[in-house]
UniProtKB/TrEMBL annotation:
<dbReference type="InterPro" id="IPR056789">
    <property type="entry name" value="LRR_R13L1-DRL21"/>
</dbReference>
<dbReference type="InterPro" id="IPR027417">
    <property type="entry name" value="P-loop_NTPase"/>
</dbReference>
<dbReference type="InterPro" id="IPR032675">
    <property type="entry name" value="LRR_dom_sf"/>
</dbReference>
<keyword id="KW-0611">Plant defense</keyword>
<dbReference type="InterPro" id="IPR042197">
    <property type="entry name" value="Apaf_helical"/>
</dbReference>
<dbReference type="Pfam" id="PF25019">
    <property type="entry name" value="LRR_R13L1-DRL21"/>
</dbReference>
<feature type="domain" description="Disease resistance protein winged helix">
    <location>
        <begin position="398"/>
        <end position="468"/>
    </location>
</feature>
<dbReference type="GO" id="GO:0006952">
    <property type="term" value="P:defense response"/>
</dbReference>
<feature type="domain" description="NB-ARC">
    <location>
        <begin position="151"/>
        <end position="310"/>
    </location>
</feature>
<dbReference type="InterPro" id="IPR041118">
    <property type="entry name" value="Rx_N"/>
</dbReference>
<dbReference type="Pfam" id="PF18052">
    <property type="entry name" value="Rx_N"/>
</dbReference>
<keyword id="KW-0433">Leucine-rich repeat</keyword>
<dbReference type="InterPro" id="IPR036388">
    <property type="entry name" value="WH-like_DNA-bd_sf"/>
</dbReference>
<feature type="domain" description="R13L1/DRL21-like LRR repeat region">
    <location>
        <begin position="656"/>
        <end position="776"/>
    </location>
</feature>
<dbReference type="GO" id="GO:0043531">
    <property type="term" value="F:ADP binding"/>
</dbReference>
<protein>
    <recommendedName>
        <fullName>NB-ARC domain-containing protein</fullName>
    </recommendedName>
</protein>
<dbReference type="Pfam" id="PF23559">
    <property type="entry name" value="WHD_DRP"/>
</dbReference>
Length: 912
């Protein structure tokens, strides 16, 4: 693309030089990020270098945009600003000047070795630094780990097995390992115990030598690896040993293979315990047992804090005012033992309330390093990251403390900022997912608490969030509104901005208006206290560098015309807004990659020019009754990775065939208004069987539609599909592909309101099906042997959940054979008004939960009908079954209730 635009202006040589310059800028930035140099001249130069990198990124983006526009026959190039060769020359001169300054600074005495801070942390030893009675909150973990260590085998074939302790910096991994290492039972059990502090330099020779010294208590002069390993093997042969490798960082398989070669000779029951901040290390070392240390409770943190601050003072004797402040300080530690001990030490023997309040109100990052080891411990984790992960992590400073984010969304933000380094043959989204997983494995991210109700969300520990703020410097700004007297100010160094609290005032908009260097603006009401009602018409006139704009959950109902100025915009979130139409200027945002329109319930249409956005990869739409069509020519968006909903239109220019060439679609796709597709040939044009990356499909017809049986037949999905939902299908029978065992990955299937179908397909032939929901198919009267299928795969071999509801005509289910539904755990019959008898399915050996509701004709349920595996039986509004229980079957259900939960119309049945 650069070459094409260069030829357009006869400036190809200039573009080649620009490409080389950009590589120099990137290399220099990666180099200087590995150095902590305090000299002001150096810091100023680094700032200039970063500014140059941002300017280079903008320049390349302009080139890409102009190239895209020039290739479009629909665009009048004269209406867009173009890049002149002199702009490239000017930038080239600027970078050359920075490079000359760098050479002077780097080679001069200003950057002497004395000014480059080392990243190495102090080595650890096996000796406990304090009394084991100060070991709070880990007793259960300690007992479990010691039991594992003393066991003869963990299921492997080797004499020597590996166990690991992982967790974020400061969580107490080393202390935990020391307590285990010095436990009396461990000391007696092993013939030889060794402790080696590994740290971030995984030097195999050095580590091997340290193991020998620890095993023999002798100083050795050997230097080469071979004699070192031979010597170590001599010391360990046929001995049951316990080796602790503390603080392992290396994720290199080869390092570990070489190191463990002489360790395999130990006697059965030998153990190696590693501690690491990385889950990946545990996997590489093939740990048989992994303990992830969790945060301490506030009560345990308080005990640690009190011990450091007040010595042996009894908790009852602690002055109430100090305990109140101390508990607030402890909550600030977020369960991190290192923080509790450090802050407690800062207040050792201090009883002045003002001093305690000072510590409470101070930012942990403001403490001098000689007084606090929190910063060095956490910074080491950051400094050890590769450069591409550093910028991804630092960007997370834009979120507020405790903010729960989705993995997929954060990856899209990284992509929008250009943080993901492209690799041949891999999607940016997949690479970004790998980045996220790496940070997760290294304890920078954690899963959100389960009680928050947010599944698949993640959060940063408060101190990790503070680390992100610290390393991002002044590039990320959390701006707060409100009634302050100071006029809002946004520094020219700020690149990423979010509004967190208070009302967005006119003054704040004015400050935002003048911030030309911003690349991210988050105005989402998910972050702010007061939702935004409108956006000033000229707000985006000057924000020419913006890559990310989030206006989700605001109350805006229209976009300003100035939205068209955001030529660099790649990520735009309008979800859950009151937007009715998208301004046509949005169609000139040629860099746009992600457009989110979820839950925009008042949106009535998409602009026709949307199909010109060739870089669009994610168009997040969901069901919206007001949105009745997609723009003509929608199929031109062949690079779409995400398309939540596609509306099959009546117009020949926006029918289902627009999906044909969208082979890159991933995730979930819902196709609505299928009543507008009138034959199988048109349905087949969607080419769903070619879309191997789709995992969830929903097919929706209008409520009163009729089908000639051919449309659904033509919508056969790819065999990789995992979830399928069919709703309001108007055909009289289901297509053969729905029961084809080639759909080997289908896990969840729901058939809803298929009102004209008289029989159910042979779904028992689906080998991986785990959940089946069949609702409101009123023409089905019986279920016979065909339902379970025939052939090599039959009888629902994997089904765990089966739910029949609103089956108005269903009378019986016959034809079940012994061995059918072997995995069924949960069974529901609801509103099956004519069902007379429950099927033999109740004999399934794995069945645990049964619910029978609104089935008035079912009359008998005896103890012998239920397997012993059933744990709960709920019966609601089943008049004959209730009457039978009250007259003849009371003893049956009472015996069932002797060791299970049996409820009839909300009343618990007692065995007595």
């Amino acid at each position: 693309m650069v070459k094409e635009v260069g030829l357009l202006w006869n400036a190809n040589d200039g573009f080649k030089k620009l490409e080389r310059t950009l590589l120099r800028v990137q290399a220099m930035l990666e180099d200087v990020e590995n150095k902590e140099i305090s000299h002001r001249a150096w810091k100023a130069w680094v700032k200039d270098l970063k500014d140059a990198a941002y300017e280079a990124d903008d320049l390349l983006d302009e080139i890409a945009i102009t190239s895209t526009m020039s290739s479009s026959q629909e665009v009048n190039m004269s209406s867009f600003p173009s890049i002149k060769p002199h702009k490239i020359d000017t930038f080239q001169k600027k970078v050359d000047e920075i490079a000359r300054e760098m050479e002077y600074l780097y080679m001069s005495k200003l950057v002497g070795s004395a000014q480059i801070k080392t990243k190495e942390r102090l080595p650890t030893s096996s000796l406990l630094m304090e009394d084991e009675h100060c070991f709070f909150g880990r007793e259960a973990d300690k007992t479990k780990m010691i039991d594992v260590i003393l066991s003869e085998s963990l299921g492997g074939n080797d004499n020597v097995t590996v166990v690991s302790v992982v967790g974020m910096a400061g969580i107490g991994k080393t202390t935990f390992a020391q307590v285990v290492y010095n436990d009396e039972r461990v000391c007696k059990h092993f013939e030889s115990r060794m402790w080696v502090s590994v740290n971030n330099d995984f030097d195999v020779k050095k580590i091997t030598k340290s193991i020998i010294v620890s095993a023999s208590n002798k100083v050795i002069d050997l230097m080469d690896l071979d004699p070192l390993q031979v010597t170590l093997r001599h010391y360990l042969t046929n001995k049951r040993f316990f080796l602790v490798l503390d603080d392992v960082w290396s994720e290199n398989y080869n390092d570990w293979d070489i190191l463990q070669a002489p360790l395999r000779v130990g006697a059965p029951g030998s153990k190696i315990l590693i501690t690491s901040r990385s889950q990946t290390v545990s996997k590489i070392m093939m740990a048989s047992h992994v303990l992830s240390l969790q945060r301490l409770s506030d009560d345990d943190c308080w005990l640690l804090f009190q011990k450091r601050a007040l010595g042996n003072m009894n908790s009852r004797d602690v002055p109430l005012n100090l305990k109140t402040i101390g508990m607030e300080i402890v909550r600030k530690c977020e369960g991190l033992p290192l923080a509790a001990k450090t802050l407690g030490s800062l207040l050792h023997a201090v009883t002045n309330e003002n001093e305690w309040n000072t510590i409470l109100m101070s930012e942990i990052w403001n403490f001098e390093e000689d007084r606090s080891n929190i910063l060095p411990a956490l910074m080491l984790s950051f400094q050890y990251l590769p450069s591409h992960l550093r910028q991804c992590f630092a960007y997370c400073a834009i979120f507020p403390r405790g903010y729960e984010f989705k993995k997929e969304n954060l990856v899209l933000l990284w992509i929008a900022q250009g943080f993901i380094q492209a690799k041949r043959g891999r999607r940016l989204e997949d690479l970004g997912s790998d980045y996220f997983d790496s940070l997760m494995c290294k304890s920078f991210f954690q899963e959100a608490p389960a009680d928050s109700g947010n599944l698949s969300r993640y959060v940063m520990h408060d101190l990790i969030h503070d680390l992100a703020k610290f390393v991002s410097g002044d590039e990320c700004l959390e701006m707060q509104g409100g009634g302050g007297l100071d006029k809002p100010y946004i520094s020219g160094n700020v690149r990423h901005l979010s509004f967190l609290k208070g009302k967005v005032s006119t003054e704040m908009y004015e400050a935002l208006y003048g911030s030309q260097s911003l690349r991210t603006v988050l105005l989402s009401s998910e972050l702010t206290t007061y939702p935004i009602h409108d956006v000033h018409f000229n707000l985006f006139v000057n924000l020419n560098c913006l890559r990310v704009l989030d206006l989700s959950i605001t109350r805006i109902h229209e976009l300003p015309y100035s939205i068209g100025n955001l030529k660099h915009l790649r990520y735009f979130d309008l979800s859950m807004t009151r937007i009715q139409t998208l301004h046509k200027n949005i169609c000139s945002l040629y860099s746009l990659q992600t457009l989110k329109l979820k839950s925009c319930t008042e949106l009535i249409g998409l602009p026709k020019g949307l199909v010109r956005l060739a870089n669009l990869r994610h168009l997040d739409l969901d069901l919206n009754p007001r949105l009745t069509s997609v723009p003509p020519g929608f199929g031109r968006l062949i690079d779409l990775q995400t398309l939540g909903t596609f509306i099959a239109g009546v117009d020949t220019r926006c029918q289902i065939g627009e999906l044909m060439d969208m082979r890159s679609l991933h995730g979930t796709l819902c196709i609505t208004q299928l009543e507008n597709v009138d034959d199988r040939r048109k349905a087949t044009q969607a080419a769903l069987n070619d879309k191997q990356h789709l995992r969830k499909l929903k097919f929706l017809w209008g409520g009163d539609s009729q089908d000639n049986n051919g449309v659904l037949a033509g919508l056969r999905p790819h065999q990789n599909i995992e979830e399928l939902h069919i709703e309001y299908y108007g055909g009289t029978r289901f297509p053969g592909w729905l029961a084809d065992s080639s759909l080997s990955k289908l896990v969840t299937l729901s058939l809803f309101s298929c009102r004209r179908c008289k029989t159910l397909p042979s779904l028992g032939q689906l080998p991986s099906l785990k959940a089946l929901v069949i609702t409101n198919i009123p023409e089905v009267e019986t279920i016979d042997v065909d339902f379970c299928g025939a052939g090599n795969v039959r009888g629902f071999p994997s089904l765990e959940i089966l739910d029949f509801s609103n089956m108005a005509s269903l009378q019986s289910w016959n034809g079940l054979a012994e061995g059918d539904l072997p995995c069924l755990r949960k069974l529901t019959f609801s509103s099956c008004l004519k069902l007379e008898a429950l099927p033999k399915i109740l004999c399934s050996p794995a069945l645990e939960h049964i619910k029978i509701s609104d089935c008035p004709e079912v009359e008998v349920l005896k103890q012998k009908d239920l397997p012993i595996s059933v744990r709960s039986l709920i019966i609601n509004s089943c008049s004959l079954l209730k009457r039978w229980h009250e007259t003849e079957g009371k003893n049956d259900l009472s015996r069932i209730a002797s060791d299970r939960e049996v409820t009839i119309d909300g009343l618990r049945i007692s065995s007595s």
